Amino acid sequence: MALPTLTHPTGASTPREANLLTHRTQPRIAVIGGSLTGCTAALLLLHAGFDQIAVYEAAPHSAPRGGGLIGLEHPALDILDRLGIGQNEIVAYTSETVWQVTVRARQPIHTAQQVYPGRNTTWTLLHHALTSRLPDALLHTGRRFTRLDVRHGQPTLTFADGSHEPADLVVFADGRSSVGRRLFDPHRRLRYAGYTAHRGQTTAENTTLRDFLRLEPPRCQYNVAPIPGGLDWTFYLPCSPTAYAHHFGAPPERRVFALPQHVGPAARTHVDEHAARLLPAPHAATVHATTERMAVPVMDIDAPTRMAWPVGHGWAVLLGDALAPVRPHTARGANNGIEQAAGLSAALTHHHRHRADLSAALHAWQRRHLPGAISAVQQGPVLAAHLGLSNP
Ligand SMILES: Cc1cc2nc3c(=O)[nH]c(=O)nc-3n(C[C@H](O)[C@H](O)[C@H](O)COP(=O)(O)OP(=O)(O)OC[C@H]3O[C@@H](n4cnc5c(N)ncnc54)[C@H](O)[C@@H]3O)c2cc1C
């Protein structure tokens, strides 16, 4: 994928300029990215009474999209509940139990029971719940944002098709390879952590598994849990950058998601061989029988120091994985994105409805949510080192 053309739009903003969102009856809010964080942010803003919202999603409407198991803690579940997205819609299995099993020579040698303070959903269930509540006219699929300029003080977006849109606030929720992050925080680059999360979804309807099961053989981790229609598993395995490129057709920094069409025979063999060598036989058989596979290279990034930037007369903010992609073991990525989106909606509401100073509101929002993002970024390598999955 060619890198987007970027100009650096950040301009000094006077307090008067920074409050210009109140001068319109409704600020124009552009959300870049229509996955979990972007759609949650848009829906929260819509519920708060903002009606000039547009979500721009690069993937075409027709592109097959779906994803695996995501654990959401109580604060995120509560935010979704307030949007009318109840657990009856997004949680297929209500177990809070996590079985953590130490495995040696393919046999369980120690089992500990834990309680997860939340529930498991899937990307597919949650994304459907969010998008089905967004008015069609608001979600623009197949619109890849490429560039941000300031024209006569007005932040102006440019898209891959050459079209332009003005906005007062740009919410970057464009994920791990965020264009917004490259624009506003260009020194924070993704670094491959040396191992990959291989993922699979089975269609084994007859599974008896109801809880989340975490197996820990030496230097790897295998998580499996029930989802509607089968099982969802994630197998973390060390993998050199060269091997990753061989398995998935591009280096980890370029292929930050390996979709089913990128998973070639070499990747399948690599995962099946490790499953046969490391996992108890029934789990190795589950992996072997799985046809639908994906992979995500585990990445690190320097901790963020900022979430909001003035742009001409408007603002830009980074949310979710765009702000800080965190290692999956932390189970915090989607939680952080949802909580940050709710905080942003509160700050904007108080500015717009009650004339609160926007700059102060955004700085307070940043002060509240940065520590959570920083702690998740820092927690990832610690958890991985405990599993023997540190950088090679
Ligand atoms: C194995 C695994 C397990 C995980 N488990 C958990 C868990 O238990 N709990 C948890 O909280 N999190 C978990 N996560 C993390 C979670 O999945 C992510 O943090 C979350 O999905 C990020 O959502 P997002 O909307 O911020 O970014 P993304 O889902 O990456 O979405 C970004 C969107 O922006 C679009 N986009 C990108 N560039 C552009 C552009 N230029 N113009 C327009 N659109 C663009 C993309 O197409 C995409 O739709 C896990 C992740 C993995 C890999």
UniProtKB/TrEMBL annotation:
* Record-annotated FAD-binding domain positions: 29-361
Q: Which UniProt keywords apply?
A: Monooxygenase, Oxidoreductase
Q: Which residues form a coiled coil?
A: none
The molecular function terms in GO held by this entry are: monooxygenase activity
Report what the protein is called: FAD-dependent monooxygenase
Q: Say which species the protein is native to.
A: Micromonospora tarensis
